[in-house]
Amino acid sequence: MIFDMDGTLFQTESLLVPVYHKMFDILREEGHHEGATPPEELILGSLGMLLPDIWKRVIPNSTEAAKLRADELLLQLELEGLEQGIGVLYPGVVDTLKALHDYGVKLYVASNGLEHYVKGVAKAYGIAHLFDDLYSAGEYATASKVDLVKLLLDKHNIRSAWMVGDRSSDVEAGVENGQTVIGCAYAGFGREDELKGSSALLNDFTELLTLYKQAE
Predict the structure, then answer these.
(1) Residues 144/114, Cβ–Cβ less than 8 Å
(2) What class of enzyme is it (predicted)?
(3) Residues 6+ apart with CB under 8 A from 45
(4) I need a labelling partner for 201 at 20 to 30 A (CA). Which of 7, 8, 140, 191 fits?
């Protein structure tokens, strides 16, 4: 099973919202941003995208220097927040992953996030050891989730997998690579048709274990 991180395993807004406001306070102090902080909905609605695409939506008229500084600050503040214990996983994530791991399922992460952030979340919440590997666009410089998942599948010689995620990019990554897609409908960041093309939908992460047992 290949998991997205934000909006699938990690309740991203629990960390991202306080970090987002702090980031814009610093950007204003440093002269990289003027005026009010853009609405939280802009960044929450952009989860699953690559950072350059996120900033095109959140601060479209900003300079490249401002966007690069936003990259640095976002990672720095998120890692600081994780160290302080800010943020939570979705209910049932730890127990479900442990159960799947105990069943012998090979578990992976494929995220469009930055390498240190993705690994930082897994480490902070004590789930890193349950995964065979953690893949991020930040580490592998992939242009899309499709490319990242293909890289993962090829590297580990995987022919059959479930792609588990909450955004259309996860559905696309699974479908384009010929894998089964399990859509996570509980995060609520996406559009109504966000998970169109999924083989099954989860309204609670723990339902994944039931699906796996049925598939066996």
Answers:
(1) no
(2) hydrolase
(3) 57, 189, 190
(4) 140
d(Cα 118, Cα 135) in Å, to the nearest integer? 8
Token duo for residue 128: 């890193």
Q: Which residues, in sequence order, are bridge partners of residue 136? A: 111
Residue 98 CB contacts under 8 Å (≥ 6 apart), including other chains: 130
Quote the strand ranges of 35-185, DSSP E. 88-89, 108-111, 133-136, 162-165, 180-184
For residue range 58-108, list pLDDT tens digits in order: 999 999 999 999 999 999 999 999 999 999 999 999 999 999 999 999 999
Tokens of 14: 């629990």
- For the entire predicted model, the pTM comes to 0.91
**Angle subtended at Cα 49 by Cα 43 and Cα 54, rounded to the nearest 5 degrees:** 45
Contacts of 90 (CB under 8 A, 6+ apart): 8, 9, 10, 11, 186, 187, 205
Q: Closest Cα to residue 202, out of 88, 117, 96?
A: 96
| All structural domains of the chain with their residue ranges | 2-12+88-215, 13-83
Amino acid at residue number 65:
A
> Which CATH superfamily hosts domain 2-12+88-215?
HAD superfamily/HAD-like (3.40.50.1000)
User: For residue 204, how many C-alpha atoms fall within 13 Å in the half-sphere facing its CB?
Assistant: 8
